[in-house]
Design brief:
By secondary structure, the protein is mostly helical. The protein contains 6 helices and 2 strands; from the N terminus they run H-H-H-H-E-E-H-H. It has a two-stranded antiparallel ribbon. A hairpin with a 2-residue loop joins strand 1 and strand 2. The longest helix has 25 residues.
């Protein structure tokens, strides 16, 4: 990860990219199908019983069409499936297939290994401090005016 970023949001973005690069390269090296960042985000936002595309889009902070494209790419790869929503005849739920669950579990294990590499590189205290700061409730985003 480069440290050319000028501010905290840029540093956070670089840190996320570092994790994604490690995860995606490791998964592909292990023989898994390559996925995009948007497709990986779908997995992170899915409920076990399934989630609608509209809800996935809301959780991901993207347009419904963007979520729809990511979902249908994953359906085409055999990692997700569409099923009827038992609570509404008009809605369909997106959920993992058995293969999708296997890949998701492997990705979670890979993230654990990447996190251990980070601990080796920057130390356990730094990682605990970082995790603590990111888990802390920051409250609602402030509305501010620059001086």
């Amino acid at each position: 990860m480069s440290h050319r970023a000028a501010n905290l949001p840029q540093l956070l973005s670089e840190a996320r990219r570092w994790f994604e690069d490690a995860l995606f390269a490791s998964m592909e090296a292990a023989g898994e199908q390559p996925v995009t960042t948007a497709q990986a985000s779908v997995f992170a936002m899915l409920d076990a019983e399934g989630t609608t595309v509209s809800e996935l889009a809301r959780r991901m902070g993207v347009a419904r069409q963007t979520a729809h494209q990511a979902v249908h790419g994953l359906i085409g790869m055999g990692l997700l499936e569409q099923v009827p929503d038992p609570g509404s005849a008009r809605r369909r739920l997106i959920r993992m297939t058995a293969e999708g669950l296997r890949v998701h579990e492997r990705a979670q294990a890979t993230i654990g290994v990447v996190e251990s590499v980070l601990v080796e590189r920057i130390g356990p205290d730094a990682v605990r401090a970082l995790e603590g700061a990111l888990r802390f409730d920051w409250g609602a985003p402030p509305l501010v005016a620059a001086p």
